[in-house]
């Protein structure tokens, strides 16, 4: 029986194991480490991963992607006339990763560690844990993605503070993480759930349409998908080559435009401006000044872009700790954690502490304006977990014997 780690990503997912003293990424059936988090169903045939991603072009109506954003919500995805929740779809991805792992390892997987964004709330975490119940696999623990990335980069015994910059396909998560001795603790978290590599693709697609006199909104789902994939390919190609093209067949006509790296830079500038805001928030919430931090740890496929790297390093004048495996780093950290679990000598005493990324508040009576309730914060965001707080509140009405206590979580709102 084996335990594996799963980085269940918005765009791509990975599985990892720890064998014979080494962290080992598990290849899928194609011999690749990254499995696209995409599901396609048609004529009762279900595919997950690379083949499903290809169906985004040929059959987008029956293909689901980016469903991690909807974990813990009631959002329904319809594939081949059937309704699926984000948990259903994520379960299919995990099932595929587990099957690939079992055939690679030659043994059954009975336990998994899954990484989740640090800002995931209780609903989103429960929805992730439910995957294990559905598959009959124990979810040993959920580990926050920035903690996993920091574990992968931190040398035990050293005191260092990092900005973990995780820029994936559809989300940006920035965390300040303190590592001292054997303790890894998240100090602050900021993020944008709707900012990622796909925004670069969209910006390129918009520029393409504008230059060709095409109305992007008039494209049907298939044409839009195809244009976005062509834009993504152009972006990826421009990382290595001077010129790359975007093309589209629309109304029986073939459109094509070449892009240079300089053009890409100006097209993506508005997206980078949004990145700046998130970094600013994470740093200011951490209580550190930028120069007191040691380095960036880059995570996620979009962090591989030299334009992104030069932008963020210039922004804070901070170096990058490690410039490889960005899209594997979370999985590698999970692998190290598996070693902790096995009590391997090297990493035996690692302690991971987390913070509450939200302010938790309750509603209280407003004397000035009884129609408008007040929100009273009990646990301020970024409190180190576990945490508890006592507060005495009184009833408003004479003879009142009951109160409703509601709990709200407020993300990214400054506490009093
Ligand atoms: P997630 O964490 O969201 O699951 P990843 O970390 O795998 O996703 O990032 C996927 C995103 O990274 C996609 O938008 C993809 O286009 C982008 N990406 C992958 N490799 C590169 C690269 N070399 N240069 C630029 N962008 C890249
Ligand atoms: Mg990721």
Summary tags:
416 residues; alpha+beta; six-stranded mixed sheet; five-stranded mixed sheet; globular; binds adenosine-5'-diphosphate; binds magnesium ion
What's the gist of this structure?
The chain has helices at 50-58, 86-105, 122-135, 145-153, 197-212, 221-237, 261-286, 306-316, 329-341, and strands at 2-8, 12-19, 22-26, 35-36, 39-42, 45-48, 63-64, 77-79, 82-84, 109-116, 138-144, 160-167, 172-180, 183-192, 243-250, 253-260, 295-299, 351-353, 355-356, 358-364, 374-379, 383-384, 408-411. Strands 1, 2, 3, 4, 10 and 11 form a six-stranded mixed β-sheet that branches. The protein has a five-stranded mixed β-sheet with strand order 17-12-13-14-18. A three-stranded antiparallel β-sheet has the order 6-5-7, with helices on both faces.
Bound molecules: adenosine-5'-diphosphate, magnesium ion
The averaged pLDDT comes out at 91
- Structural class determined from secondary elements: alpha+beta
What characterizes the major β-sheet?
Answer: 6 strands, mixed
Percent range of helical residues: 25-40%
How many helical stretches? 9
Structural account:
This protein has 416 residues and is α+β, with helices and mostly antiparallel strands. 32% of the residues lie in helices and 30% in strands. A hairpin with a 2-residue loop joins strand 13 (172-180) and strand 14 (183-192). The radius of gyration is 23 Å and the shape is globular. The N and C termini lie far apart (50 Å). Residues 412-416 have low confidence and may be disordered. Residues 9-12, 168-171, 196-198, 232, 235-236, 239, 300-302, 304-305, 327 line the site of adenosine-5'-diphosphate.
């Amino acid at each position: 029986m084996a335990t594996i780690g799963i980085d269940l990503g918005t765009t791509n997912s990975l599985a990892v194991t720890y064998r014979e003293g080494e962290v080992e990424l598990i290849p899928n059936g194609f011999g690749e480490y990254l499995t696209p988090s995409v599901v396609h169903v048609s004529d009762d045939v279900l595919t997950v991963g690379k083949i499903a991603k290809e169906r985004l072009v040929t059959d987008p109506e029956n293909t689901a992607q980016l469903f991690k954003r909807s974990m813990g919500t009631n959002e329904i995805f319809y594939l081949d006339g059937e309704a699926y929740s984000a948990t259903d779809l994520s379960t299919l991805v995990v099932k595929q990763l587990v099957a690939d792992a079992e055939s690679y390892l030659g043994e059954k997987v009975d336990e998994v560690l899954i990484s989740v964004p640090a800002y995931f709330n209780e609903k989103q975490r429960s929805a992730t844990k439910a995957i294990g119940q559905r598959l009959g696999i124990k979810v040993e623990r959920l580990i926050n993605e920035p903690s996993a990335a920091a574990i992968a980069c931190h040398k035990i015994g050293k005191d260092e503070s990092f900005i973990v910059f995780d820029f994936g396909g559809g989300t940006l998560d920035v965390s300040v993480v303190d590592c001292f001795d054997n303790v890894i603790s998240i100090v602050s978290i900021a993020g944008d759930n709707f900012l990622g590599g796909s925004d670069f693709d969209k910006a390129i697609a918009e520029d393409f349409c504008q230059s060709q006199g095409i109305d992007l909104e008039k494209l049907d789902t298939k044409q839009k998908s195809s244009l976005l994939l062509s834009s993504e390919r152009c972006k990826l190609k421009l990382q290595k080559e001077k010129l790359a093209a975007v093309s589209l067949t629309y109304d029986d006509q073939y459109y094509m435009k070449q892009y240079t790296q300089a053009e890409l830079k100006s097209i993506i500038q508005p997206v980078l401006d949004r990145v700046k805001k998130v970094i600013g928030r994470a740093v200011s919430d951490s209580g550190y000044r930028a120069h007191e931090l040691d380095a960036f740890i880059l995570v996620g496929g979009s962090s591989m872009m030299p334009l992104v790297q030069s932008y963020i390093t210039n922004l804070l004048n901070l170096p990058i700790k490690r410039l490889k495996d960005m899209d594997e780093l979370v999985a590698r950290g999970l692998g190290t954690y598996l070693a902790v679990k096995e009590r391997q000598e090297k990493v035996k005493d690692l302690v991971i502490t987390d913070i509450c990324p939200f302010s938790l508040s309750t509603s209280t009576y407003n004397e000035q304006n009884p129609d408008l309730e007040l929100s009273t914060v009990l646990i301020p965001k970024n409190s180190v977990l576990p945490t508890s707080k006592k507060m005495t509140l009184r009833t408003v009405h004479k003879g009142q014997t009951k109160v409703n206590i509601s709990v709200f979580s407020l993300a990214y709102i400054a506490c009093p």
